[in-house]
Amino acid sequence: MKKFACMLLLLLFFVVILPGHGQAAAATNKIFLDGQELTAGQDVPVENVNNSIMVPLRMIAENLGYKVDWNQTSKTVTIEQQGKTMQLIVNQTAASVDGKTVILTTSPLLRNGTTLVPIRFIGEQFGLTVKWDNTKKIVDLITPEIPDSNTETGGSSGDGGTVVVPPDDAANGLSMINGISFNENRLTIALEGNTQPKVSKVTGPDRIVIDLPNATFSDVFGTGQQLDPNLNGMLTVTDYPEVSGIRYSLYSTNPYTVRFVIDLNTSKNYSVEVSGDVSKLIVIDLNAQSTGDTSTQPGNSGRKLVVLDAGHGAKDSGAVGVTGKYEKNFNLAVILKAAELLKQENKIDVVLTRSDDTFLELKDRAAIANNLKADLFISVHANSSGSSAASGTETYYQREASKALANVMHKYLVQATGLSDRGVRYGNFHVIRETTMPAVLLEVGYLSNKNDEALLFTESLQNKVAASMVSGIKEYLGVQ
Ligand SMILES: [Zn+2]
Q: What domain of life does the native source organism fall in (predicted)?
């Protein structure tokens, strides 16, 4: 009965649309499924939000045949198809697929009483290819061909109404690419899964092509790197004259293949290193000599991965200072500065839990570091106290394994702030408790204190704190 009530609610929810909003929108947005225009779900416009195509939930239910449920109280959308269950929450980027947390580039949102959901993410999870023509405002949904069909030709989608979804094991076997970086003539690709890179050198023009079979981009990827709705993107490289740029795309969906291309201004040799078990780092090193470089150990790139976490974000402002400044903004400013500095280190890779003013659950922050099997996790915060006199710098650890890191980080942090040394302390904070690597939480100063607040929002103090974090990280990791 509860389910019936839920569906009723869902129907009501879909039907209640403010009058007068339909006409203009319907003219400018079209949605095609395997070349056939879909007629329903267009009374609320398709939107392009931060390069995510957002479509009415009703479209998913009515046209793709997925089972859709809506919980008004928790603002949760549940989508089921072929044994796979997905839950998305309005205004939250954290979603779950079969109980596993994933981070969306754009959270579901409400428009005129209708829920809009990111079609690329949902379609991809259920095996669809999703394309968006921004000029014509057309969404193209393409169902996959049946993998073991007897005939290789054709690919006609026949009766139109049903959606073909690949078997579950095929969908689950995909490697997920979480991020890339380019430093010191090395391209680093972070991913989860078992894909093995196929790397080749191509001339005219010179380039290196890296194909990752059975792989796609995770939604974490889009939060850190440029990725358009067609799953194409570019990494701008400015500091390495031999490299003109790096392109990447979901090159094929049958079979799934992600392709990276390093565009070169001159022919270069390379070496490939793969480290890690399920969470892997693939390094394409352009420093290799033609005779073979012996300075790198096979199977271990020797590079360290640091996850930096700017506390709070978006609706969660964190502490509010005496003059009304938000902790979340301080945290992010310091993290971005530290990341810039770390990117110049050739033995350290850096991943941010957030790089803009977005909201992330604590468990998702820890999950990012754990999934990547990061070497270190550092969370930046500013403190607040009921007593306006409280002032100074603290560093927190929760697990014994994090104590040594806390001591090193604190030594540099206190020097940088010049505020009173309130010591290395035990603190039962989620992100440093639930992470599996050495993890610390820095409370740089007190926003409830007038002097601390003023100091923390100066560029020079933020630069000093960022530099102190890099010094602490390098000393702890033994990186020169
Ligand atoms: Zn905080």
A: Bacteria
